[in-house]
Amino acid sequence: MSAAEETGLIVPIGRWVLRQACLQMRAWQNQWPALRDWFVSVNVSSREFAQPDFLAGVDRVLRESQLSPHSLKIEVTERVLIENAEHARALMDELRQRGVQLSIDDFGTGYSSLSYLHQLPFDVLKIDRSFMQDLEAGGKNLEIISAIVTLAHNLGMTVVAEGSEKAQDLPKLKELSCEIGQGHVFARPMEGEAVVGLIAKELEKRGEG
Predict the structure, then answer these.
(1) Which residue, 122, 151, 172, sits at the end of a domain?
(2) pTM of the entire structure?
(3) One domain, residues 132 and 113
(4) Which residues of the chain have pLDDT under 70?
């Protein structure tokens, strides 16, 4: 992916990914009305975010796919904030006004997180997977996650623990009031057809299928 960043190919690739993700989410919502409150998350690189027509592109994709803005979550890393904080804030405000959710990805891996966190309109904070090692043994990582969760909640954000790979980590995350986990303990990356089966199974379990 770094090669795509360096060559600029990440921009057309990112636009294609955003469009396909929104079209697919809307198709699933049409198939299962119970998914109207679900959302799809799309990672956006700093190079994509800096494009003058990025916002117009998001508007176009939402219009074409007929997906509600509330069903889209855009994830950015703090590199976006470092490179042009003023532009990032203006763009994020526009996205939030439309109802698009915003998430800061890989939190804790850079130096600017705390200085920007209270200034920008994030809905979700994703704890970097590097902090998820050996949680069952306690120690510093557990204390760091606890502090991050408290900070995020105080700022009105939902917390996602990336790299949730072990079932034994889940009770610890619940104790820390971390709302969401992301990782192989729930499911591995899969193609759309396999996701259909996973959705159907989950809705059946909830009695919403």
Answers:
(1) 122
(2) 0.89
(3) no
(4) 1-7, 110-113, 115, 134, 136-138, 209
